[in-house]
Amino acid sequence: MREVNMMQNTNVNENGKIYGKWKIMPDTWCITDGWGNFIYLLIGKEKAMLIDTCSCEGNVREVVEEITEKEIMVVNTHGHFDHTGGNACWPEAWMTKEASVHAKEPFAGIYKEWFAQKLYPDYKIHFLSGGEEIDLGERKVEVIPIPAHSEGSIALLDRKTRSLFGGDEIEAGQVILFVRNEAISLQELAKRHRENMYKLKAKRKDYDWIWPAHNGLPLYPDDYLNDYIALDEEIINGTAKVLANTAGFGFPPDNQAVPNPFLNYGKLYRVEKGVASFVFSEEESVYHND
Ligand SMILES: [Zn+2]
Questions:
Q1: 2-281 is classed in which CATH architecture?
Q2: Across residues 24-41, what is the average pLDDT?
Q3: Which is the most buried residue in 78, 186, 203, 245, by most CB within 10 A?
Q4: Cα(11) to centroid(ligand 1), Å
Q5: Of 195, 271, 200, which is closest to residue 235 (Cα–Cα)?
Q6: Domain ranges of the chain
């Protein structure tokens, strides 16, 4: 009896159940860890794709296996730990080479303990380079490189449900531009981001919704693509208006009285246009996990 109770408690913490899950489309589920991370399970006839895995609290694999018994292929939109931590519940994962650089580096504090307890902390990584069509069985998912927020970012296009999964590159609230492998100028980042938005716009006839990894979902594509392109152009031209406060949807204010996970990234700034918003650093900041 005690053993049964322990198993039932794997995914319960002081706030209740760690993970919530709900069906968003046929054979398609969203799972969240309550920390503002959204991951997606796409079930094909042969296997299922899990897009991102949250930060490795509890055991996300149990949640996935409550939904499907199919073989799971773990694919990461990019290498930030809030997307890759739970990979270590499986023996292997797929991501870009650039995403793999920090994928196994837990954020500071409790994340390190959670990660160390996982079955496969040294899981095998297979590289994706973009352009692949991953066949789940009567359901193909296209890999589209869109690196700006992170060097390793991809979007995943599922024509079957007419859905685009965009990771952290196109989001409500904000896209952050300061947690990267390498520092490059804000203007250069905006050029890359604009190019990616045009790439997604070119495939617009193939999807109706964008499913992001944080904040509000789903996103109506046209306004987000157009406003992000317009904001990218204002940054490139030097006309973007910097707001007085960084506070946003799912993002802390620059009032340092509250715990702010981004204190190591220098002074941060927010720019906005329509539904698009970026937060960037005055320093050309790169990845910290301390
Ligand atoms: Zn990210």
A1: 4-Layer Sandwich (3.60)
A2: 95
A3: 78
A4: 24
A5: 271
A6: 2-281
The DSSP H or E segment spanning 273 is strand 268-273
Kind of pairing between the strands at 276-281 and 268-273? antiparallel
Task: Tell which residue, 49, 123, 48, has the closest CA to residue 85.
Answer: 123
Tell how far the Cα of 81 is from the centroid of ligand 1, in angstroms: 8
* Residue 35 banded pLDDT, cuts 50, 70, 90: confident
Angstrom distance (rounded) from CA 112 to CA 221 = 36
- pLDDT at residue 76 greater than cutoff 80: yes
Whether residue 114 contacts residue 55, with contact meaning beta carbons closer than 8 Å, is answered with yes
How far is the centre of ligand 1, averaged over its atoms, from the C-alpha of 150 (Å)?
6
Cα maximum dimension of the chain: 66
- How far away, in angstroms, is 152 Cα from ligand 1 center? 10
Token reading at 11: 């995914």
Above pLDDT 90, what percent of the chain? 78
| pLDDT band (50, 70, 90) for residue 288 | low
Q: How far is the CA of 64 from the centre of ligand 1 (A)?
A: 22
Strand partners, 145: 154
Environment class of residue 226 by beta-carbon count within 10 Å: exposed (0-12), middle (13-18) or buried (19+)?
middle
The 8-class DSSP code of residue 7 comes to H
pLDDT level of residue 73 (50, 70, 90 thresholds): very high
Residue with tokens 């794709």: 49
